[in-house]
Amino acid sequence: MKENQRVYTNEEIGIVFPLYCLNPPKMVREFLYRTKFETKYLFAIATYGNLPGAAMQELQNTVKDYGYQFDYMNTLLMVDNFLPNFEINEELSKLPQKNIQEHMNQITNDIKNHKHFIPDTTERDRVLSDMCKSLLIQQDKGEAAKSFIVTQKCNHCGVCVKVCPAANISASAQTTFGNQCESCYACIHACPQNAIHLKNEKSPVRWRHPEVSLEELIASNQQI
Ligand SMILES: Cc1cc2nc3c(=O)[nH]c(=O)nc-3n(C[C@H](O)[C@H](O)[C@H](O)COP(=O)(O)O)c2cc1C
Ligand code: SF4
Ligand code: SF4
Fold first, then answer.
1. Closest by alpha carbon to 142, among 163, 166, 164?
2. Domain that holds residue 182
3. Distance (Å, whole) CA 81 – CA 161
């Protein structure tokens, strides 16, 4: 992500990302714009919590202009961690119906067999995606974290700085946020003191996937 010239060469290449506001995060969109893939099989998997809208079809249309196409695209329904609309404990109670492991096995098999598949998009998906366009423009301004509240519980441990994929946080004397926020909420969910809050969050309960450790999250960001 941090390199300017990016060319990847391999038999199979895949990218996995979440959907924020029915779209890949801005940094993922920029990555796809500035990257060259030399491969026989290119795939994209998006995790989402509720509704993917027309995200995959729109992305396929977008990358056509960049000179490539995905051979396989799919979506994986996971825990919805969009705190203004969803309460984590309620979302966790929905897990059995989401059949995540089963869907993941299906996707893994598809990829192993080099299946070609692009999800269908219904009229409803397109309407939903269109409805979210103005929210996406707002999100892309990168100012979301400006309205986060940092409480007195903050002990300046610096964890939020290390998990932020956008290098958008400074936690020296005071925890402050810049204008490059990707709205990923990693800082909010990872703060060991639960000191970062949204004004409109449903509850203060936080969540990280049990198979992803804080150390892995920090290492993958390589911010310091
Ligand atoms: C800012 C934000 C916006 C989101 N927007 C959507 C959305 O439009 N549709 C959806 O189904 N899930 C949405 N989600 C839920 C995430 O896609 C889902 O929880 C995903 O698994 C998060 O992956 P991550 O933990 O790797 O970021 C959103 C989450 C956040 C934080
Ligand atoms: S992770 Fe939490 S406690 Fe640590 S510096 Fe950031 S806001 Fe403060
Ligand atoms: S970690 Fe926090 S500040 Fe950084 S991009 Fe994610 S939400 Fe924004």
1. 166
2. 143-221
3. 20
Q: 20: CA distance to ligand 2 center in Å? A: 23
The answer to the question of residue 1 being in a domain is no
Regarding predicted confidence, which is higher, 106 or 172? 106
CATH code, 201: 3.30.70.20
Residue 193 resides in a domain: yes
Per residue in 214-223, pLDDT (tens digit) is 999 999 887 6
Does the beta carbon of 187 sit less than 6 angstroms from any atom of ligand 3? yes
Contact 47 CB / ligand 1 (< 6 Å): yes
What is the rounded distance in angstroms from the CA atom of residue 62 to the CA atom of residue 83?
A: 29
Substitution candidate for ligand 2 out of 151, 152, 159 with most atoms within 8 A of CB: 159
Tell me the per-residue pLDDT of 98-138, one tens digit each, with 9 for 90 and over: 999 999 999 999 999 999 999 999 999 999 999 999 999 99
| Distances 84 to 36, 45, 128 between C-alpha atoms, Å | 36, 24, 18
pLDDT tens-place string over residues 11-25: 999 999 999 999 999
Pocket test for ligand 1, best of 81, 94, 135 (most atoms within 8 A of CB): 81
Domain closes at, from 108, 139, 170: 139
Residue 147 lies in a domain: yes
Q: What's the domain count of the chain?
A: 2
